[in-house]
Amino acid sequence: MTDIPTLERTLIGAVAAAADEAALEAVRVSALGKKGSVSELLKTLGAMTPDERREKGPLINGLRDRVNAAIAERKAALEETALAARLAAERVDVTLPLQEGPQTRGRIHPISQVIDELTAIFADMGFSIAEGPDIETDFYNFTALNFPAGHPARDMHDTFFLPPDDKGERKVLRTHTSPVQIRTMLGQKPPIRVIIPGRTYRCDSDQTHTPMFHQVEGLVIDKSSHIGHLKWILEEFCKAFFEVDQVKMRFRPSFFPFTEPSAEVDIQCARKGGEIRFGEGEDWLEILGCGMVHPNVLRNCGLDPDEYQGFAWGMGIDRIAMLKYGMPDLRPFFEADVRWLSHYGFRPLDLPTLAGGLSS
C-alpha cells in the first residue's frame, strides 16, 4: 500500500512548483488522470474488505479532494499572475499624444489640392471638366489654334517634338492645354462651358519654370458671351481661390494667336515680409492671360463666328499654388521629397468646398 502522507506531500509540492498552466495540467494528469497515482489508489478500494475500505476509503478520498483543491488554488493563482502580466504588457498610457495612422499621415500634393480647389470653384459656376491627350498632333496644338505653318508665333513655345511617324508627321508633347479646347468644340455643340486642367511641356527649366508643368484653361462658347462675362468670372474666381472679400484686377492688351482681343490680367497685391497678399496694397502681379476666341479658331472647329462667340483664359496651376501657399521655388514640386510634401501637403480627408473652405 502506497504511503498516503508521503504521496500527498509529493503531489502538493509538484502542484506548488508548477510554473504555468501547462505544467500544472501535467501534475493533474499524473495524479488524477485515468492512470494517475491517486486514481490507482481509488481502484484498490473495490478489492478491500469492508473493514479495510472503512479505514482506507476516507484517507484516499481525502487525498483526492486535497490534491484537487491544491490544483484549483494554484490554477487560480497562475491565471491571476498571467492576467497581471498581460495587463502590464498591454497597458496604454493615455497621457501620451495619439499617434497618427497611415490614413492621416499621408498628404495630398499641392498640385492635386489646387486642381480640386479649381474644380470646386468653377463647378459652382456651372463649368464641367474636359481632358485630352498629352501627345498631340501639330493640327490640334498649333494649326487649329491659328498658328499657321512657319508663323513666328510658334516660336513662343519651346516645343518637345517627337520623332516622325510612318507618315512623316512629328507629334509634340502639348505645349498648352488649348488643344483640348479644339477637341471640345469639335466634339460638342455650343453652349460650351469647360475648364481644362492638365500637364503641359516646354523645354525650359529654372526657379519658376520646369520642363513639365500644369495649366488650367477655361472656355465659354455661346451666342451672347462677351468680355464682361469673362471679367466677372475671373474676379469671382480670384476672390474664391485666394479667399479674400474683394480683388482689383487690370487688363493689359497683349497678343495670343488664338484670341482677339487678347489681354494679360494683373491682380492687386501687397508684398510684406516676403509674402504676397491679395486684395490689398498698391503692387500688381500678373496671374493669367485671356481674350475673346479668335474667329479663325471658331471656323477651324466648324462654328460660324457670325453666330457664335466666346472667350478663354489660361493660367499656370503651379504658379498660383506658389502664390497662394508661399512656395518660393517650383522645382521641389517634382522632386518627390517626402519632407517637402509633409510640410506643404494637405490632409487627404479635407476635401476643398466653397461652403467648408478651400484650404481649411
TrEMBL record:
Organism: Chelatococcus caeni
Alphabetical UniProt keywords: Aminoacyl-tRNA synthetase, ATP-binding, Cytoplasm, Ligase, Magnesium, Metal-binding, Nucleotide-binding, Protein biosynthesis
Subunit structure of this chain's protein: Tetramer of two alpha and two beta subunits.
Cofactor binding remark: Binds 2 magnesium ions per tetramer.
This protein's encoding gene: pheS
Residue ranges annotated for the Aminoacyl-transfer RNA synthetases class-II family profile domain, each copy included: 121-332
Protein name, entry field: Phenylalanine--tRNA ligase alpha subunit
Cofactor: Mg(2+)
One term of GO molecular function: magnesium ion binding
Gene Ontology biological process terms in this record: phenylalanyl-tRNA aminoacylation
GO cellular component: cytoplasm
Lineage: Bacteria, Pseudomonadati, Pseudomonadota, Alphaproteobacteria, Hyphomicrobiales
InterPro entries xref list: aa-tRNA-synth_II, aa-tRNA-synth_II/BPL/LPL, Phe-tRNA-synth_IIc_asu, Phe-tRNA_ligase_II_N, Phe_tRNA_ligase_alpha1_bac, Phenylalanyl-tRNA_Synthase, tRNA-bd_arm
